[in-house]
């Protein structure tokens, strides 16, 4: 690993991975406890529309993705809250529409099609410094908002009805949380790609939840797990010459399954409690 | 009547997906009321509470809560809902959950104050669950959870307490304790208790209303046999008040 860090692209990759760990560690906890996995999947896939739009307009695709992702997150929030259709139906529709928009825009853009694979499955080794700066800004915003509104988000996640009665602006808080999810998705796209984002949003938080029942501790643990997953995955992909995004996800998934297996084993042998 | 009116419903009707749930409901709740609302399941009891809380918009009629709209007046209401549909694995302690009742007092971007933690401490003490303060909320028994949720409603320092089927998850021996607790609380606030179970609540409450889409209420504990029959759509055996009423199904 240390010799790999001589390369600038490896250092950038490591920084990108750690930023991803911080954002998905924090926001992933809300995604898990508020059961927003499906809507997060929708938001991340719809962001492909933004990548396409970015190419078409000739701006940095990730900037296009940022605005498009925020818009589609709010759109999904509005439709699921206001329209009289089932939440998962609405998400399913917007999920596919976002991707379709992306394909259409890329088709309309003259010249060679861009390297779609790196957006769909991530390529942490080619993250440019400009993207790292944007990831850093987004991560700082996420941390600030969560620190300032920690108790409000906790109440929102636990019991929306009660939160409404005590006077919280529940709907606005929910939309704000969706925007933070959109930010996180944009940070993660470079690292693991649109299709694999949902794994980093869920696995570190789900693993952390097995060890604590305090949301703050769960966030910290989840950041640590995320950091371990991204750096271990990065190192493995470098050593074995594998796709970085997919390796990170497999390391995460295997660790999660192992933690499940270990706690079952402990339960069976009666040592401690899971 | 010198007692202050805290809630007033005039000719209120509400629908759920086109199905009428409440029809022409008139109701006044006063500041020292201990009102029990009984009625069959699906009779609109929960909807009535949600109309008072401004969570359900009535299709027709006027609702006034502490002389204001429900959205503004509900800050004086402590609400304990029927089901706590939260995830049993939710990462929050009893303390965290009860503290949520203080959100309206603290405001955003701020930490909870000393006052907030003092109020939480008192509520946990009053509900006799202080020992469980650091336990995960989902790991408590049904009765203890109920106490935690009442504590959460109490820390809002309400002038009106709305309880939706509060004894549903409490064992019968604990229920007596529970009603003794309400006896103490009613010195400080109006209480409205909703239940499908006439026999347990009628002993304790001071007034009874009967709800099955329409509300039958005479601002007293007397319920005419016709009212009960109209509400429950079945013959009812009435026994002198003070003794539990019983509803007999027709065989």
List the helices and strands and how they pair.
The complex is a heterodimer of chains A (274) and B (251).
Chain A (H helix, E strand, L loop, with lengths): L7 H26 L3 H21 L3 H22 L4 H22 L7 H6 L7 H20 L1 H9 L1 H6 L4 H23 L4 H13 L5 H26 L3 H26 L5
Helix pairs in contact in A: 1-6, 1-9, 1-10, 1-11, 2-3, 2-4, 2-9, 2-10, 3-4, 3-9, 6-9, 9-10, 10-11, 10-12, 11-12
Chain B lengths: L4 E12 L2 E12 L3 E5 L6 H8 L7 E6 L4 H4 L3 E4 L13 H6 L3 H4 L7 H13 L15 H13 L5 E5 L7 H14 L4 E6 L2 H7 L2 E6 L1 E4 L7 H8 L3 E2 L8 E2 L4
Parallel strand pairs in B: 3-7, 3-8, 5-6, 6-7
Antiparallel strand pairs in B: 1-2, 1-4, 8-9, 10-11
Helix pairs in contact in B: 5-6
Description:
The complex is a heterodimer of chains A (274) and B (251). Chain A is 80% helix and 0% strand. Chain A has a single domain, classed as ABC transporter involved in vitamin B12 uptake, BtuC (Orthogonal Bundle), CATH 1.10.3470.10. The longest helix of chain A has 26 residues, at 8-33. The radius of gyration of chain A is 19 Å and the shape is globular. Chain A has 274 residues and is mostly helical. Chain B is an alpha/beta fold and 251 residues long. Chain B has a single domain (5-247), classed as P-loop containing nucleotide triphosphate hydrolases (Rossmann fold), CATH 3.40.50.300. Chain B contains 9 helices and 11 strands. In chain B, the strands form 3 sheets. Chain B has a 6-stranded mixed sheet, sandwiched between helices. A 3-stranded antiparallel sheet of chain B has the order 2-1-4. In chain B, strands 10-11 form a two-stranded antiparallel sheet. In chain B, a hairpin with a 1-residue loop joins strand 8 (207-212) and strand 9. Chain B is globular, with a radius of gyration of 18 Å. Residues 234-251 of chain B have low confidence and may be disordered. Classes of the chains: A mainly alpha (274), B alpha/beta (251). At the A-B interface, helix 7 and helix 8 of A face helix 3 and helix 4 of B.
């Amino acid at each position: 690993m240390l010799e790999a860090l001589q390369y600038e692209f490896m250092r950038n990759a490591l920084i990108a991975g750690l930023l991803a760990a911080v954002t998905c560690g924090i926001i992933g906890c809300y995604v898990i406890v508020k059961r927003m996995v499906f809507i997060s999947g929708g938001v991340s896939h719809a962001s492909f529309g933004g990548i396409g739009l970015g190419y078409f307009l000739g701006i940095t695709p990730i900037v296009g993705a940022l605005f498009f992702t925020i818009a589609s997150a709010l759109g999904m929030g509005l439709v699921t809250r206001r329209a009289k259709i089932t939440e998962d139906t609405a998400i399913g529709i917007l999920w596919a529409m976002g991707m379709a928009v992306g394909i259409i825009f890329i088709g309309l853009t003259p010249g060679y099609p861009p390297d779609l694979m790196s957006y769909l499955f991530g390529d942490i080794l080619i993250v440019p410094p400009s993207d790292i700066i944007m990831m850093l800004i987004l991560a700082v915003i996420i941390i600030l908002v969560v620190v300032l509104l920690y108790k409000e988000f906790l109440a929102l996640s636990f019991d929306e009805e009660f939160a409404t009665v005590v006077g919280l602006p529940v709907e606005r808080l929910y939309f704000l949380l969706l925007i933070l999810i959109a930010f996180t998705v944009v940070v993660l796209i470079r690292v693991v790609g649109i299709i694999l984002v949902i794994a980093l949003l869920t696995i570190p938080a789900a693993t952390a939840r097995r060890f604590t029942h305090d949301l703050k501790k769960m966030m910290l643990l989840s950041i640590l797990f995320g950091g371990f997953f991204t750096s271990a995955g990065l190192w493995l992909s470098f050593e074995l010459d594998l796709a970085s995004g997919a390796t990170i996800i497999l390391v995460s998934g295997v660790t999660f399954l192992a933690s499940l297996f270990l706690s079952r084993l402990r339960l069976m042998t009666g040592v401690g409690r899971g | 009547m010198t007692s202050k009116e805290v809630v007033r419903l005039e000719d209120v009707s509400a629908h759920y997906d086109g199905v009428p749930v409440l029809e022409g409901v008139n109701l006044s709740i006063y500041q020292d009321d201990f009102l029990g609302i009984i009625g069959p399941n699906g009779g609109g009891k929960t909807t009535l509470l949600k109309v008072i809380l401004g969570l359900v918009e009535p299709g027709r009629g006027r609702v006034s809560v502490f002389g204001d709209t429900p959205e503004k007046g509900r800050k004086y209401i402590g609400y304990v809902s029927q089901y706590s549909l939260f995830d049993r694995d939710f990462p929050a302690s009893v303390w965290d959950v009860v503290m949520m009742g203080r959100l309206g007092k603290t405001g955003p971007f701020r930490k909870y104050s000393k006052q907030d933690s003092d109020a939480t401490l008192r509520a946990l003490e009053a509900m006799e669950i202080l020992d469980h303060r650091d336990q995960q909320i989902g790991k408590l028994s049904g009765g203890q959870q109920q106490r935690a949720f009442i504590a959460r409603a109490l820390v809002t320092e309400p002038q009106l307490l709305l309880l939706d089927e509060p004894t549903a998850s409490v064992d019968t021996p604990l229920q007596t304790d529970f009603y003794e607790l309400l006896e103490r609380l009613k010195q400080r606030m109006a209480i409205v208790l909703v239940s499908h179970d006439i026999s347990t609540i009628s002993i304790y409450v001071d007034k009874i209303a009967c709800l099955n889409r329409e509300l039958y209420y005479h601002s007293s504990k007397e319920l005419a046999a016709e009212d009960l029959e109209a509400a429950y759509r079945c013959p009812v055996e009435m026994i002198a008040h003070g003794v539990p009423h019983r509803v007999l199904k027709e065989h």
